């Protein structure tokens, strides 16, 4: 029997222009590996806590302080909690609160000639880390687009590079996903 591949569409909620990725991952991946795939294909840097909300259950890295009640993502395989047509939430950075809607678009047998995970499509650049969530990202985009904006130079200096919100390269995302997962 061929291993099962889950095609997931991951969409960052409440941002314009839209940011989304279509990824194909083995169903045998534990949720911690799915998290690493999401980090790499979206462009996050894995600097913050995260969680999955699947059918009312929370999964993530267990909290040693006991303040967050999370099931251990290391013990949970994707194929045990997700089904074709299903949906779940992935939240990254509990301060900025980046919510991602995840749809299981398809489940199919692995192509023996393909290396997984694969990022087959997507749109939009991931917002920079620590920009302040969707509201802060809107302010960031406005300031970066207007050289006369009072925060333009400060934000360019803070980011340390140019930023084009429409840039996305699925080939580079696939390479990173394979390397980091």
TrEMBL record:
<protein>
    <recommendedName>
        <fullName>Plasmid pRiA4b Orf3-like domain-containing protein</fullName>
    </recommendedName>
</protein>
<feature type="domain" description="Plasmid pRiA4b Orf3-like">
    <location>
        <begin position="4"/>
        <end position="170"/>
    </location>
</feature>
<dbReference type="InterPro" id="IPR024047">
    <property type="entry name" value="MM3350-like_sf"/>
</dbReference>
<dbReference type="Pfam" id="PF07929">
    <property type="entry name" value="PRiA4_ORF3"/>
</dbReference>
<dbReference type="InterPro" id="IPR012912">
    <property type="entry name" value="Plasmid_pRiA4b_Orf3-like"/>
</dbReference>
